[in-house]
Automatic annotation (TrEMBL):
<dbReference type="Pfam" id="PF00528">
    <property type="entry name" value="BPD_transp_1"/>
</dbReference>
<protein>
    <submittedName>
        <fullName>Amino acid ABC transporter permease</fullName>
    </submittedName>
</protein>
<keyword id="KW-0029">Amino-acid transport</keyword>
<keyword id="KW-0813">Transport</keyword>
<feature type="transmembrane region" description="Helical">
    <location>
        <begin position="185"/>
        <end position="207"/>
    </location>
</feature>
<feature type="transmembrane region" description="Helical">
    <location>
        <begin position="60"/>
        <end position="79"/>
    </location>
</feature>
<keyword id="KW-1003">Cell membrane</keyword>
<dbReference type="InterPro" id="IPR043429">
    <property type="entry name" value="ArtM/GltK/GlnP/TcyL/YhdX-like"/>
</dbReference>
<feature type="transmembrane region" description="Helical">
    <location>
        <begin position="15"/>
        <end position="39"/>
    </location>
</feature>
<keyword id="KW-1133">Transmembrane helix</keyword>
<dbReference type="InterPro" id="IPR000515">
    <property type="entry name" value="MetI-like"/>
</dbReference>
<dbReference type="InterPro" id="IPR010065">
    <property type="entry name" value="AA_ABC_transptr_permease_3TM"/>
</dbReference>
<comment type="similarity">
    <text>Belongs to the binding-protein-dependent transport system permease family. HisMQ subfamily.</text>
</comment>
<keyword id="KW-0812">Transmembrane</keyword>
<feature type="domain" description="ABC transmembrane type-1">
    <location>
        <begin position="15"/>
        <end position="204"/>
    </location>
</feature>
<keyword id="KW-0472">Membrane</keyword>
<dbReference type="InterPro" id="IPR035906">
    <property type="entry name" value="MetI-like_sf"/>
</dbReference>
Length: 215
C-alpha cells in the first residue's frame, strides 16, 4: 500500500494518461475503421483495393514496429516536433482501425441484401445507403467484437510507455528503476487496467441492452 500512497501523483498521472491515449486512439480507430469498412464494401474497385491493402498491411504488422515507424520515421519525414502522445495515438489508432474495419464489415454482411437494394431503388446513393440503412442495422452485431477490440487496445497502450509517453506502464518502469518492489507495482498497475477494461465492458453491455430493446 505504501508504494501506491507514497507515489499517488505518479499513479494518478499514469492512470489518466492511459485513459487519454486509449480514448484518443479508440476514437481515431473507430473513425478510420468505419471509413475503411465503407471502402471494403464499395462498388468502386480502387477503393476496395485500398481498403484490402490497409487491413492486410496493418493487421499483419507487429504493433511495436508501427511504434518504431511512428516515433523514428514520421517526425523526420512528415511532421517534425510531433509530441509522443500524438505519435503513440497514431500508431495505436491506425493499428486498431484494421480490426475495427473487419468487425464492421462482418456486421454489414449480416444485413439482408434486400435492404440495400430497396434503398437503391429509392434513388439513394451508396454512401446514403451505408450511413442511413446498413450501418444502423449492423450496429447490434458489431458491438460485441468492438468491446473486445477496445479492451485489447487498452492493454496495447502499455507499449506507449516504452516510448516516453506518460501512462501506467511508464510509471511502473520508472518506479522499478528506482528500486521499489516490482511485485507491488505490477499489482496496482494491473488493478488500474482492470478498472479501465471493466468500465469499457460495462459500457458496451449497456449499449447492447439498449440496442436489444430497440430491436
Amino acid at each position: 500500500m505504501n508504494v501506491l500512497l507514497d507515489h499517488l501523483p505518479e499513479f494518478r498521472d499514469g492512470f489518466l494518461g492511459t485513459l487519454a491515449i486509449t480514448a484518443a486512439s479508440a476514437l481515431l480507430a473507430l473513425v478510420l475503421g468505419l471509413l475503411i469498412a465503407g471502402f471494403r464494401v464499395s462498388p468502386i474497385p480502387p477503393l476496395r483495393a485500398f481498403g484490402t491493402a490497409w487491413v492486410t498491411v496493418l493487421r499483419n504488422t507487429p504493433l511495436t514496429l508501427l511504434f518504431l515507424v511512428a516515433f523514428f520515421v514520421v517526425p523526420q519525414i512528415l511532421f517534425p516536433g510531433t509530441s509522443p502522445f500524438v505519435l503513440a495515438t497514431l500508431a495505436l489508432g491506425f493499428y486498431t482501425s484494421s480490426f475495427v474495419c473487419e468487425a464492421v464489415r462482418s456486421g454489414i454482411s449480416t444485413v439482408p441484401i434486400g435492404q440495400a437494394e430497396a434503398a437503391r431503388s429509392l434513388g439513394m446513393t451508396f454512401s446514403q445507403t451505408l450511413r442511413m440503412i446498413v450501418l444502423p442495422q449492423a450496429t447490434r452485431t458489431v458491438l460485441p467484437p468492438l468491446s473486445s477490440i477496445f479492451i485489447a487496445l487498452t492493454k496495447n497502450s502499455a507499449i506507449a510507455g516504452a516510448f516516453s509517453v506518460t501512462e501506467l506502464f511508464n510509471v511502473s518502469k520508472l518506479l522499478s528503476d528506482k528500486g521499489f518492489a516490482i511485485g507491488w507495482i505490477f499489482l496496482w498497475i494491473a488493478l488500474a487496467y482492470l478498472v479501465i477494461t471493466f468500465a469499457i465492458s460495462g459500457l458496451f453491455r449497456v449499449l447492447e441492452r439498449r440496442m436489444g430493446v430497440a430491436r
